[in-house]
Design a protein that fits this description.
There is one protein chain. The protein is of the alpha+beta class and about 210 residues long. The model has no long low-confidence stretch (mean pLDDT about 85). The protein has 8 helices and 9 strands. The strands form 2 sheets. A 5-stranded antiparallel sheet has the order 1-8-3-6-9. A 4-stranded antiparallel sheet has the order 2-7-4-5, with no helix packed on it.
Length: about 210
């Protein structure tokens, strides 16, 4: 997971930041304290450790940190998140993905996201291998994208909840695509299964 896309921000004093239109999606999750945020012309939303703010691409942001606030900020290219959504659905999306600005961390899915943010913050502070190792970083990045897409209500969440595309055949198609796209890579069955999010036993049984 690229460190340039992940950052823990702490100012130690009250500060306000006004940005131009963002090029990517930003998910800001307070770890300590409170932050007041708004996007475009929306009313400010106060976020704490029980809420996160999801800033869309193409809109300016206005963010005010409390003096004790610490938040983890993730930058996600829209194309990356929509590509992961298509992987989960098993087909291309027909309309752009829209994510609500306010993200509750009080639900069971939200608590998973909050725990993951604390894990990443700890890895950033200790410069742990979970973020620096390329393979582990890629796996963690996909897990985060899936947690966001499955845990935060958005424009395609009902389709994710009710789609009837079998997961294993879709994984097989992706596995074959990977073999064609990266023929020079020394694929093992375990590595290939991990890359398409199924067990090695499932892949062998097809």
């Amino acid at each position: 997971m690229p460190r340039r896309r992940t950052q823990t921000q702490k100012w130690g004093r009250r500060i306000r930041l006004v940005t131009e239109e963002a090029r990517h999606i930003h998910v800001n999750t307070p770890l300590v304290g409170s932050v007041a945020s708004c996007v475009g012309r929306s009313a400010p939303v106060a976020t704490t450790s029980r809420q996160a703010a999801v800033f869309p691409a193409g809109a300016p942001a206005d963010i005010e940190w409390g003096s004790d606030a610490v938040q983890l900020c993730l930058m996600i290219p829209s194309s990356t998140l929509e590509g992961e959504l298509e992987e989960l659905l098993g087909h291309p999306i027909k309309r752009p993905l829209h994510l609500p600005f306010h993200m509750s961390l009080a639900t069971s899915e939200g608590r998973v996201w909050r725990s993951m943010m604390h894990l990443i913050a700890g890895e950033l502070a200790s410069r742990g291998r979970l973020l620096s190792h390329p393979a582990a970083g890629r796996q963690l990045e996909r897990t985060l994208l899936d947690a966001l897409l499955l845990g935060h209500p958005h424009s395609h969440i009902e389709e994710l909840d009710h789609h009837d595309v079998p997961a294993v055949p879709r994984a097989v198609v992706r596995a074959v695509d990977l073999l064609h796209e990266r023929p020079a890579e020394a694929w093992s069955s375990t590595g290939l299964a991990r890359a398409v999010h199924v067990s090695a036993r499932s892949l062998h049984g097809l």
